[in-house]
Amino acid sequence: MMYKNLLKGLVSGLVLSTALSANASQILFAHVNTGNYVADGNGLAAMLSAAGHDVTTRFLNDAVYDDYSSFDQIFVYDLSVGTDNSAIQNANYANIGDWYNNLTEQNLILDGRMISSYASWTNANGMSPEDAWMQNYAHQLDLRGGGLVLGTDHNVFASGINSINNAIGVSDFYGSYGSYPSSQAVVDVNSPLYLDSLDTCRSDSSSGCINDNSSTGFVATGLQANGQMLTPVAYHGSNLDAWNYAAVSSTMGSLTFGTCGGADQPPCSVPAPGSLALFGLGIAALGFAKRKRA
């Protein structure tokens, strides 16, 4: 009996270990450069490690890397003030762009206030920790086969990371918005990045907000040069403002969320005519199969 229980315990442990490893991704967390906010970036990387992912941290100004294909997900963090376009950095930006452009599943998240998810910023503003917010980025990308997260802050910081935006055909991070607490960002409840555990918004207690403690940068939304539709995930103001004042946007399998189809909003995407035709053929085939069995 003792050996039977021991074997049962070993099998259970193996199953649990397999389940955890199946959800673990190889993630690169890449700092554009050194600077005052490296510790904050490392704190964000630690959140991903705590969720069971294998995280490699590096600086894109150190050396030119050509191993990007070994990663499932890449998080690029640009909180470096000034111009970050050395020959080494530009080569890495180009290599990351090539990696993304060759992905089968081109899932993308743009975060114009990434540093605001780190504990020192949420704590200072009386908000809940946002470990789960960052971890959900990795989780949602993992569900969809991987992808890219680009994170920065307002326009003083974005010169380096915008080189990657250009390489993958999406518009730049830009601008500088407001001051806390007005700069809390409302999260679209229809987005897969939404979490039930979010703090309520100070401006509207019926909505969930993420911390956006200071002067965020805005992110690209709408149809991009690469053909992707970037949908607002978190934004300032009302739902009608989402497409112009987005703090976070994403594209995941061409999903659209709740911020479309209303007055002054872009239309929600619909299946292409070919997709509708295939759907109709599928329904017809099911009906034929049922009649044949009858």
TrEMBL record:
Transmembrane segments: none annotated. It comes from the Bacteria. The keyword Nucleotide-binding does not apply. Residues 269-291 form the Ice-binding protein C-terminal domain. This is PEP-CTERM sorting domain-containing protein. The keyword Signal applies. It holds the Pfam family PEP-CTERM. Residues 1-24 form the signal peptide. InterPro entries: Ice-binding_C. The lineage of its organism: Bacteria, Pseudomonadati, Pseudomonadota, Gammaproteobacteria, Alteromonadales. Keywords: Signal.
